[in-house]
Design brief:
Length: 379
């Protein structure tokens, strides 16, 4: 039913007053002097040249760190293959023993953990890409070499023009050479032999994604970050887990930086929206973002005495079963949605068809490179 005469004008005025009030509050926030806590946080963030983020799919916190924390629970049992592909989100009891996830365990003990990182249904990768696009911050998206296509960009092609695609194999050389952009987002492999902790239900499979693949990816990314010291770069590596709106809850998160106290816990609640605020606070000088409680807590966690990257602990790569050439349900679905109903008998041919259909999301297209670097391709 339409509003009576004048209703539309009143609605317009209400919106105008609300927008004006919001703008006034924002202007006051920008003009007010920063608090001592905000000033200290800004100084800590200024020491970070690069932010590298890995966002796994959702294993709950208790499965990854519950045993490490001494919580009550039962470890997964069976042979190695069964344990490392144990059910994920739909299993409320089982968990990994610390020795089952040696990379996660070592980094949790050597750096800091966010004790209350909440999965709110938002995808941290998309949230980050929006933030860097809106703030015009240079960024790169790291993609598995064999997969060669970004599932994030398949679903959000509008982000493509502002960034670069980089193969995982080039991450360490680029870090060592000092050629990484300020923001680097690592997208776990998800279409073939997922390395993202996905549950069996999410994959449409009988077993969950192999946790050894996630361990190996974390080792590769951490080792690349650790190799960056020769370029004189100070880096912050955030390792988070994505949840879903249907299964909100605490997910594991690690904060890895030179100024982090080993074994520290960060008690402030943090969600996927904290990451874009952190980037805006560091690279865009956004005062409102700097005042966010989660951003302040992360900044305080990295503000300790600096530890050279050469003194960071060394992780070891995990044994990962060889990749198969089977077309997984997730790959078949992506192929169906992004081509004109094409099908394929092998993963290799399916990925080739997918990359050809969506060059904007493909690592192997002529559209991918880090501008100004000697490697990769231009966006």
């Amino acid at each position: 039913m339409p509003e009576p005469a004048g209703g539309e004008r009143r609605a317009f005025l209400r919106r105008s007053f609300a927008e004006a009030a919001s703008a006034a509050i924002e202007a006051v926030g920008r003009s007010a002097p920063p608090t001592p806590r905000e000033s200290a946080a800004a100084a800590a963030l200024a020491g970070i040249d690069h932010v590298v983020v890995v966002a796994f799919a959702g294993r709950p916190r208790h499965q990854v760190f519950g045993a490490l924390d001494g919580e009550d629970g039962v470890e997964f049992e069976g042979d190695t293959d069964e344990v490392m592909t144990a059910p994920a989100l739909d299993d409320g009891v089982g968990r990994f023993a610390p020795e089952m996830l040696p990379v996660h365990t070592l980094l949790a003990r050597s750096f800091a953990r966010v004790e209350h990182w909440w999965a709110d249904g938002a995808d941290p990768l998309l949230e980050l890409l929006r933030a860097v696009r809106d703030s015009a911050t240079p960024w790169a998206l790291v993609v598995d070499d064999r997969q060669g296509v970004s599932t994030t960009l398949l679903e959000a092609p509008d982000h493509r023009a502002s960034g670069s695609l980089v193969p995982l194999s080039r991450l360490a050389p680029l870090a060592t050479a000092g050629e990484l952009p300020p923001v680097v987002v690592v997208e776990p492999r998800s279409l073939v032999a997922p390395a993202d902790f996905s549950s069996a239900a999410e994959l449409g499979e009988l077993r969950s994604a192999d946790a050894r693949a996630a361990e190996d990816l974390l080792h590769s990314v951490y080792s690349a970050v650790r190799a960056g010291e020769r370029a004189g770069r100070r880096m912050l590596l955030l390792v988070v887990s994505r949840g879903s709106r249907s299964r909100p809850g605490e997910v594991p998160a690690l904060v890895i930086a030179s100024g982090v106290r080993p074994g520290a816990g960060i008690d402030a609640p943090v969600t996927a929206s904290t990451l874009p605020r952190l980037l805006r606070a560091r690279f865009a000088g956004d005062r409102r973002a700097l005042s966010d409680g989660g951003v302040l807590a992360l900044a305080e966690a990295i503000a300790g005495p600096l530890r050279p990257l050469s003194r960071w602990p060394q992780t070891a790569s995990a044994f990962v079963p060889p990749l198969t050439d089977r077309v997984t349900p997730r790959l078949a679905s992506a192929l169906l949605r992004h081509t004109e109903g094409a099908t394929a008998e092998t993963a290799q041919s399916a990925l080739a068809l997918l990359r050809a259909a969506r060059p904007d999301a493909s690592l192997h297209s002529d559209q991918a490179r880090i501008p100004g670097s000697r490697e990769g391709r231009d966006a």
